[in-house]
Amino acid sequence: MTTPPDLRTPRTATRRPRAADRTAAPRAVESRPPVPAVARAARLLDALAASHEPLHLIDLVRTLALPKSTVHGLCTTLLATGLIERLDKGGYHLGARVMDLAHAYLARTDVTAEFQAIVQAQAPMPEESLVLSVLDGADIVYVGCRNGTRPFGFNFRIGMRLPANCTASGKAMLATRPPQAVIDLALARAFYALTRRSLTRPGPLLDELRQAAARGYAIDDEETRAGMVCIGAPIFGPGSDEAVAAVAFSLAKTSLTAARRRQAIDTAVRVAAAISRRLGARRPAPSRDTPERGGDPPSGPRRPRVRAALR
């Protein structure tokens, strides 16, 4: 196969570059326009990532506004590389190789590394499942997880995506966002329900987020899955009042005592605060003197309140 002219190695490439050449090279690369095929492939991957259902060829053609032959060629190439997969019924979704790339990226991110360090060193509540998630639009994506030793019937996995309005970690992060941003997502119907207890309307959701902001943690009471209660707490980076991630414990509701619930709340807040400190956050400890709906006020000294976006 003939190598395209722009990819051939010039004879002068064997010359050792001078210092000036090495300095100028990155600027020259950055000034080049993006390769159209690569940009289209990235758009196709974005479309599959944003969809909660597999997309067929005609769906991708409509979403990308590209000719059918172009989209078919992109799909063929991405299938060959393992970046997408095709189901028996013809729909496409992201392939397993995307997870390999995600794992390689996450292994280098500070928040994931700090989460893993705390899990390995402290093993907080090892019987219960503990997850680390980040906010992606109206969804959360799990970027770290430790499934508990207690039989639960539900396993979390890295890369799992769920609606932020239903999950404890999602609500813990949304509670630090401007209210209008949450309203816009709700009105655009970006949020959706997983159970009959899930909140999707702006009013009830904002009320829930205000409580989460005041307490310093969020509750998912069978909003993601029947029989499951989750406790989530936000993680902050340096110089920002908006959470960069969140941790959450998931517990079986049938065996959840008041003492175990309080332990999960305390541990989630403690783990989130420890990761925040490791990331360089200087945010004060959240207030814990506002009782959760239907619960009793926690005992003990009152902690300094945090100025929250939804307060």
Provide tags for this entry.
40% helix, Arc Repressor Mutant, subunit A, Beta-Lactamase, two-stranded antiparallel sheet, 2 domains, alpha+beta
Structure commentary:
This protein is α+β, with helices and mostly antiparallel strands and 311 residues long. The chain has 2 domains: 36-98, Arc Repressor Mutant, subunit A (Orthogonal Bundle); 109-279, GAF domain (Beta-Lactamase, 2-Layer Sandwich). 40% of the residues lie in helices and 14% in strands. It is built from 10 helices and 8 strands. It has helices at 19-30, 36-50, 57-64, 68-81, 96-106, 110-122, 168-174, 179-187, 202-215, 258-279, and strands spanning 84-86, 92-94, 129-136, 139-146, 161-163, 218-221, 228-235, 245-252. It has a 6-stranded antiparallel beta sheet with strand order 5-4-3-8-7-6. Strands 1-2 form a two-stranded antiparallel sheet. A hairpin with a 2-residue loop joins β3 (129-136) and β4. α2 (36-50) packs across α4 and α3 (57-64) crosses α4. The longest helix has 22 residues, at 258-279. The chain is globular and about 60 Å long. The relative contact order is 0.09.
